[in-house]
Write a structure and sequence with these properties.
The complex is a heterodimer of chains A (about 130) and B (about 375).
Chain A: E1 6-10, H1 14-26, E2 30-34, H2 37-46, E3 51-55, H3 63-74, E4 80-84, H4 86-90, H5 99-102, E5 109-112, H6 117-128
Parallel strand pairs in A: 1-2, 1-3, 3-4, 4-5
Helix pairs in contact in A: 2-3
Chain B: E1 2-9, H1 13-24, E2 37-44, H2 47-57, E3 61-64, H3 73-82, E4 88-93, H4 98-106, E5 109-114, H5 119-176, H6 188-215, E6 224-227, H7 228-245, E7 249-252, E8 259-262, H8 264-280, E9 287-295, E10 298-305, H9 312-317, H10 339-349, E11 353-359, E12 363-371
Parallel strand pairs in B: 1-2, 1-3, 3-4, 4-5, 7-9
Antiparallel strand pairs in B: 6-8, 9-10, 10-12, 11-12
Helix pairs in contact in B: 2-3, 5-6, 6-10, 7-8, 8-10
Classes of the chains: A alpha/beta (about 130), B alpha/beta (about 375).
Chain lengths: ~130, ~375
């Protein structure tokens, strides 16, 4: 397929990574995976994806934030989705209301990890303007 | 240095200036305090003025005369209590009737100083209060730190419990939706992965039970003479089937009994964790060596492996709750991230010491020393 968009997915849970890779591939995208923040950073040296999906807790509790920060410095126009299981657990939400923190966390969307494929598809299409 | 504000409320100027003089160069420090306390003295000649000052300056201590021109000292005390100010009140009065004294005590007066008082009487009362304030502040700090750690632990724990559920959920949904067609053989991999996550969760729950038992701070209940070598033999037997699968040799290099006074279940937790880690994080055809001895009046438990090893950064974080070394070698290894943090807690309970040395790609060595 020509013009196939590439999505980089980083998650340290190999099962979750496998499943979401499958989901996103079925939506018609080309998927590159990374199992850690470090691996994602390595991949990004050579590849510019069209969208990135990062897990929040990887090597450290805020790997996803740091990765997003570095990513946006490199590719300010490429959208980032952060996946988190934290919201439901702690009641900490990363909505727009904590703008102070969001100033440097430049993720475009935060999604809960137990998400439905349709919701993920909607968000990806919206960000890629498909 | 910390400054405590003392408000002296008395219509006699002599009492106010005397108090100021006595407290101005007074300082309190105890060996257990990490700071020294000094005093700043504020003055009020009436109860009304005192209330204004209390609202504006929030003093830590109020020295309160009962017999005042306007409202009485006892009314000021009631005001402090009603507004829930965190203030230590000392009544200074010569006319205190029993009734007033009882009422003042009920309303939270901390101490009574009879008038006229000597500088020493005032100082010892202030010193006593300072100790109370210091302890109260410490307790508050510790309580807050404890709550934060607890919250942190719970949020990480729920993450750890939820991750396998999400994975299993995902795999079951794939089966339900027949993602790979009707042939059940196509699902072999995902069924294996789901089962692996179930077993991981089981380990986590077992570790959590050990963890809460120790976290409870219940001192070891069942102290008796235990033979560490014997417990090591049992631990090795438990892990042996898995070691054989991966062709790893486990050697116990100590045969004669080493007797220590301890809770056998706690020693077992330590050995289980160290030995199973040495096998889990080993290379196929690797080797584990266990040494148990008593030397220089200390007990030594040593477990060496020829495994994947760790970096310095890994070692620094090794004993934190839920920490797991994450790299390409460890990604398929199931673990709760609690094992070594439990080991550390037990070793601390016995005033022991853990030493870790490791070389990435070559292996690790864990040494635990227990005092006699």
């Amino acid at each position: 397929m020509k013009n196939q968009k590439t999505i980089l997915i980083a998650d340290d849970d190999i099962d979750y990574l496998y499943q979401i890779k499958l989901k996103v591939e079925q939506l018609g995208f080309n998927v590159i995976t990374a199992e850690s923040q470090a691996e994602a950073e390595k991949i990004l040296q050579n590849i510019k994806p069209d969208l990135a999906i990062f897990d929040l807790m990887m090597e450290t509790e805020d790997s996803g934030f740091i990765l997003t920060y570095k990513f946006k410095k490199q590719y300010p126009d490429i959208p980032v989705i952060i996946l988190t299981a934290v919201t439901a657990e702690t009641g900490i939400s990363f909505g727009n209301e904590i703008s102070n923190e969001n100033k440097w966390i430049k993720a475009d969307v935060f999604l809960d990890k137990s998400l439905q494929t349709e919701k993920l598809q909607r968000e990806i299409n919206k960000l890629l303007k498909i | 240095m910390a400054i405590l504000k003392v408000l002296v409320v008395d219509d006699e100027p002599g009492i106010r200036s005397g108090t100021k003089r006595i407290l101005e160069n007074f300082k309190v420090d105890y060996p257990f305090m990490d700071e020294q306390f000094n005093y700043e003295v504020l003055e009020s000649a009436s109860g009304e003025d005192a209330i204004t000052l209390i609202n504006q300056q929030s003093p830590d201590i109020v020295l309160l005369d009962n017999k005042l021109p306007g409202i009485q000292g006892i009314d000021v005390l009631e005001y402090i209590k009603k507004n829930r100010y965190d203030i230590f009140v000392v009544m200074i009065t010569s006319y205190a009737s029993l009734e007033v004294a009882v009422k003042a005590t009920r309303n939270g007066a901390f101490d009574f100083i009879p008038k006229p008082f000597t500088p020493q009487e005032l100082r010892s009362s202030i010193e006593n209060i300072t100790k109370q304030i210091f302890l109260k502040r410490m307790a508050k700090k510790l309580n807050k730190a404890g709550k934060e750690i607890r919250f942190q632990f719970l949020s990480v724990l729920s993450h750890e419990l939820k991750a396998p559920l999400n994975a299993i959920d995902g795999y079951l949904t794939m089966i339900k939706e027949k993602q790979f067609g009707n042939n059940i053989d196509n699902y072999q991999h995902i069924v294996d992965r789901a089962l692996e996550r179930v077993s991981g969760m089981r380990y986590l729950i077992l570790d959590l039970l050990d963890f809460t038992k120790i976290e409870n701070g219940t001192p070891s209940q069942n102290i008796q003479e235990v033979d560490i070598v014997k417990i090591a033999e049992i631990s090795i037997d438990t892990i042996r089937p898995y070691a054989i699968q991966r062709d790893i040799d486990v050697y116990l290099n100590s045969r004669s009994p080493v007797i220590m006074k301890a809770d056998p279940s706690e020693i077992e937790i330590i050995l289980n964790n160290l030995i199973s880690n040495a096998v889990k994080y080993n290379k196929d055809k690797g080797r584990v060596d266990i040494y148990i001895k008593k030397e220089n009046g200390k007990y030594l438990i040593q477990v060496d492996d020829t495994g994947i090893g760790m970096t310095k950064t890994d070692i620094q974080q090794l004993f934190q709750d839920f920490f797991r070394v994450k790299n390409e070698y460890t990604k398929n290894i199931t673990g709760s991230g609690l094992g070594l943090s439990i080991v550390k807690k037990i070793v601390d309970m016995y005033n022991g010491k853990i030493e870790v040395t490791s070389t990435p790609g070559q292996g690790s060595s864990f040494k635990i020393y227990f005092p006699e």
